[in-house]
């Protein structure tokens, strides 16, 4: 007998719930109309009638319950912590959602003449100024739709700048081995050869190593600070000097800017181009790599290379400027995902400069608190044990057997919690990457750490059993989503 009272793994398809003759529509009380319901088809003009549409037949309440049960099988940040390190979805405040879905926002059209959308253009102009201030850049282009697209824009800018200034001889980009996979992918898509920079045992990149690898072939380096191990790179300034010394440019992967908000700026560290993942830092939706927003910023000397359009303010008011002299061109229609950008603006205005500073304090505190609450025997830190974590903590699941991190993650799902990221960064054995963000209360962090500790204890004494048991599907083929994959790139 199927359970129909709560969200359960065996929720039937709506067609399986169907019974011939059941209806979900209300019959109007007017007797004249009612009489026609003896033959409902009589209400539909003959030319529009179909013999059979084969729709499920259910009562209204059954339909409502079916979809409610399905929705309860879902997980969201509004249900519990979502500590999916590196791709973390922060809580998006409701006020941002309300403003982004207001009629005036929904009704605006990208082809409207600028004089009719001065309000939203002024918001984007201010957002561009705020992001420039936070990062120490001269100017931002908002249109790029995800972190990865921001990266591609950034390396294309570096390529064009170098071609303009010294020809195309520099064809290598340095990328640390701890980098997010999108870094080498973006560099390769922009036509560069990727040179891997190995991290040291403490998880950091040494300037001396970068000096060794940098040459007259080096176009630049993509550097993530704090890095994907959650560690601040101690030699960031020296690394920038090393690359600049070899004639290359420095690209800042700003996906982890949450840890630095209001405290340190990539522009002051020596970076030339940056991207920000608005979803990771400024509380906007992510949505599986898009539709999101990964704006790109540049120092003064690279500003003209930004993707167009950029928002400008002139005598006639605000407008979208497609005329940047050396631009790499447009990568996305119009100003980008405007409702996402608007949410980021609301978040910045809600918090103000001091609030943004609090965000980084709380994010760092939460990451360290959670990390320190984990059993160090079960979940040893892979790198830099003595160093403070920034936005996230990466640990190894102790044990020789491959697949242990996946088992822990599946056991977390069984408890109705969201799993951490697994097997990333690639340089960490049986990795769990946990990023709680600033929004989580202490009790949630305690509960999560206790759950992980308990799972490991059960794993060790053999009482964990097969996991997951309580999810709608069991173990899925994790590889099939991306392999085999047929990709075509059209330039
Ligand atoms: C360090 C780092 N760089 C780049 C990206 C790529 O960003 P996106 O997923 O928005 O393309 C991510 C993902 O969040 C990331 O964590």
Q: What is this structure's SSE topology?
A:
Elements: H1 14-17, H2 31-36, H3 60-72, H4 94-100, H5 103-107, H6 118-135, E1 139-141, H7 147-166, E2 172-176, H8 182-189, E3 193-197, H9 207-213, E4 218-224, H10 236-245, E5 249-254, H11 266-269, E6 273-276, H12 278-281, E7 296-298, E8 310-314, E9 317-321, H13 338-373, E10 393-396, H14 404-414, E11 421-422, E12 431-434, H15 442-461
Parallel strand pairs: 2-3, 2-4, 4-5, 5-6
Antiparallel strand pairs: 1-7, 6-7, 8-9, 10-12, 11-12
Describe the structure.
The chain is α/β, with parallel strands linked by helices. The protein has 3 domains: 14-72, no CATH class; 94-350, Aspartate Aminotransferase, domain 2, CATH 3.40.640.10; 355-461, Aspartate Aminotransferase, domain 1, CATH 3.90.1150.10. It has helices spanning 14-17, 31-36, 60-72, 94-100, 103-107, 118-135, 147-166, 182-189, 207-213, 236-245, 266-269, 278-281, 338-373, 404-414, 442-461; strands spanning 139-141, 172-176, 193-197, 218-224, 249-254, 273-276, 296-298, 310-314, 317-321, 393-396, 421-422, 431-434. Strands 1-7-6-5-4-2-3 form a 7-stranded mixed β-sheet, with helices on both faces. A 3-stranded antiparallel β-sheet has the order 10-12-11, with helices on one face. The protein has a two-stranded antiparallel sheet with strand order 8-9. Strand 5 (249-254), helix 11 and strand 6 form a beta-alpha-beta unit. The termini are far apart. The model has no long low-confidence stretch (mean pLDDT 92). The structure holds pyridoxal-5'-phosphate (PLP). Pyridoxal-5'-phosphate is lined by residues 86-87, 146-148, 180, 182, 224, 228, 253, 255-256, 277, 280, 289, 292, 294.
